[in-house]
Structure formats: structure tokens, C-alpha cells
Design a protein that fits this description.
Number of helices: 11
Distance between the termini: 89 Å
Structural class: alpha/beta
CATH topology of the largest domain: D-Maltodextrin-Binding Protein, domain 2
CATH class of the largest domain: Alpha Beta
Mean pLDDT: 89
Order of helices and strands: HEHEHEHEHEHEHEHEEHHEH
Low-confidence stretches: 1-28
CATH superfamily of the largest domain: Bordetella uptake gene, domain 1
Number of strands: 10
Strand content: 15-25%
Helix content: 40-55%
Radius of gyration: 25 Å
Number of domains: 2
């Protein structure tokens, strides 16, 4: 067998080439799954959907899963102004996501929107946030029993601030009124486009009470300007010493879920790529920290199970909205 001579120069060159090839897989693993994700938020900046989208961005970038997230916020009518825009302008785009949630289900019915959640591609349900019923510390209502008695006596005299008409807050009030033996159509619900105006109305005594996700009122509760009377989850919010409605003898549970959706017209491969991305984001330490900090409940669910849950939510919401006279 002939002897093959390798010079020092050849050896070093071979070593460099081998080292480069060995380094390639590590480099490939470090490459983001998506260079750019176009994130659409059908609400104004600062609300629950926007904070969910921003939390996704922070977690995705910390885990090097996305190079860049570009945001577009289009608020109004519980998401019904933005939803048609997302459906029509982002159709077939496999790098686009929209944050939405249960509010959009009722808003579509209330606004008789021709475009609904049925027109987007479900990717994943992410979080659930129990509602909290609050009163201003300076108001006449001090306890849950006070509020319960006032509703039983005359629901129309108990004005309650919340988000969009037909949204989760509105539905929760209707369920409570019904559980207390009155007609949900008697609800004195005052809808606000965002948490800021609702907070101002509650603190200013323009309404008797307020309903929203706990995070929307947390700052005011901790500052002693609002009193949290009840929460609407199946169990207490971790770290929050406020009873559930069921603990108080009111057979009502409701929560505001949030998730992400892709546009219509994407391929199976594009859909699976987005599911893979969101699954990896949710498994990251950054997302776990966001969940804990914001006191969200993790209800992660993807693809077909999520689509089935969405269909069930549509049917249940329509029934409650009929009780409220909104459908």
C-alpha cells in the first residue's frame, strides 16, 4: 500500500476544515426558527392582547426562536375592526400571527360581523385569566354581600364597567345576575375600549363596580384604591387572597382565554411551523416567567383540540348572549 504524505500545512488546513464542519451543527441550532414574525394585535397598545403579544416577543427573542417581531395594532369593537384586516391582508402568509381571545367570540356576535373567528387558523390557546369583580374603596359597596343584595334588589341600579360589549366581562356580569335570580337583560353594563378609561370610571365613582382580568386592576387593588370582592375562576388566583364566586355561593365560573391564530389560506407545512414555534416559546424559561409575573393560568393547547374548544366556546357564548339580548 502506498504511503500518503501529509505536510504540516495540509494537516492544519484539514483540521480547520474539520473544525468548521463540526461547528456547523451548533451554528445551525442557534439560527432562529423564523427571521421575522409579523404579529397582529386587534386592540390598542397596553391591553391584555397587546401584553400577551409583547410577552411572546420577549420569550421568543430570549430563546433565540425569532429574529424580529413586527407589530401592528388595530383596535376597536372587541377586535372586530382588526380581524377583517388580518384575514384579508395576511391571507396565506406563513409568518403572521394574531393574538386574540374569548372577547372576540362575543364581539363578533354582538357586532353581527361577517368575519369571525371561524375565518382564521387556530394555532394555540395560551393562557386563561380569571375575572375579578371590584369596587372603589371610596364607594358605598364594601363587601360581596353588599353587591349581591344590590343586584338582587335592582340590577339596573348597579352600573358595572368592563371591556367591549359582548366580551368576557359583559358575559360574566350576565351570568352573575342570572345566578342571583334576576334577568340578565337588566344588566347595567358600561363598556370601555380599554383598561385605562374603565379604571378611571371606577375610581371616579361613575360606576358602582368593575369587571376585568385581575392584571388590569392589580395596581389599583395593591394601592388600596379598589377592593377585589370575587374572582371568576374554578380556583383562586395563585398568591391572591380573594374568594371565587363559587366559594361565595354563586354557581358561576368564567375566564378570559387568549391564544394565537394564523391567517386563512396557509399550507399545512406553514401551520405546523407556527405550531412548532409557539410550542417552543411556551416551553421556554422566559415564557414561564411571564406567566408567573402576570398571574396567568397556563392552558396551552394546540391544533385540533384547540379548534374543538373554540367551537364549543362559540356555542356557549351565543347562548349567554341570547340571555343578554345581544344575539
Amino acid at each position: 500500500m502506498p504511503t500518503i504524505a501529509i505536510t504540516k500545512r495540509d494537516f492544519l488546513a484539514l483540521g480547520a476544515a474539520t473544525g468548521a464542519s463540526l461547528a456547523l451543527p451548533a451554528w445551525a441550532q442557534a439560527k432562529p426558527l423564523f427571521e421575522t414574525i409579523n404579529m397582529f394585535v386587534p386592540a390598542a397598545p397596553g391591553g391584555g392582547w397587546d401584553s400577551t403579544a409583547r410577552s411572546l416577543e420577549r420569550a421568543a427573542k430570549a430563546a433565540n426562536l425569532v429574529g424580529n417581531m413586527q407589530f401592528e395594532n388595530v383596535g376597536g369593537a372587541g377586535g372586530m375592526v382588526g380581524l377583517p384586516r388580518f384575514v384579508n391582508q395576511r391571507k396565506g402568509q406563513g409568518n403572521s400571527l394574531m393574538v386574540g381571545g374569548s372577547v372576540m367570540v362575543g364581539a363578533a356576535i354582538a357586532n353581527k360581523s361577517p368575519v369571525t373567528m371561524k375565518d382564521v387558523t387556530p394555532i394555540a390557546r395560551l393562557t386563561e385569566e380569571a375575572g375579578v369583580i371590584v369596587v372603589p374603596t371610596s364607594g358605598k359597596i364594601k363587601t360581596w354581600k353588599d353587591l349581591e343584595n344590590a343586584i338582587k334588589e335592582n340590577p339596573k341600579a348597579v352600573s358595572v364597567a368592563g371591556g367591549s360589549a359582548g366580551g368576557t366581562d359583559h358575559l360574566l356580569l350576565g351570568l352573575v345576575i342570572k345566578a342571583l335570580g334576576r334577568n340578565p337583560r337588566e344588566a347595567a353594563y358600561v363598556a370601555f375600549a380599554g383598561g385605562g378609561p374603565a379604571n378611571a370610571a371606577i375610581l371616579g365613582g361613575q360606576v358602582v363596580a368593575g369587571i376585568s382580568g385581575y392584571s388590569e386592576f392589580e395596581e389599583q387593588i395593591k394601592a388600596g384604591r379598589m377592593v377585589a370582592l370575587a374572582t371568576s375562576g374554578t380556583r383562586r388566583i395563585p398568591g391572591v387572597n380573594v374568594p371565587t364566586l363559587t366559594e361565595l355561593g354563586v354557581n358561576v365560573t368564567a375566564a378570559n382565554w387568549r391564544g394565537v391564530f394564523a391567517p386563512p389560506g396557509i399550507s399545512d407545512a406553514q401551520r405546523n411551523g407556527l405550531i412548532d414555534l409557539v410550542t417552543k416559546i411556551v416551553a421556554s424559561p422566559g415564557w414561564r416567567q411571564e406567566i408567573e409575573t402576570r398571574k396567568w393560568t397556563d392552558v396551552f393547547m394546540t391544533e385540533l383540540p384547540f379548534a374543538r374548544e373554540l367551537a364549543s366556546d362559540l356555542a356557549k357564548t351565543e347562548a349567554v348572549m341570547k340571555d343578554l339580548g345581544l344575539a
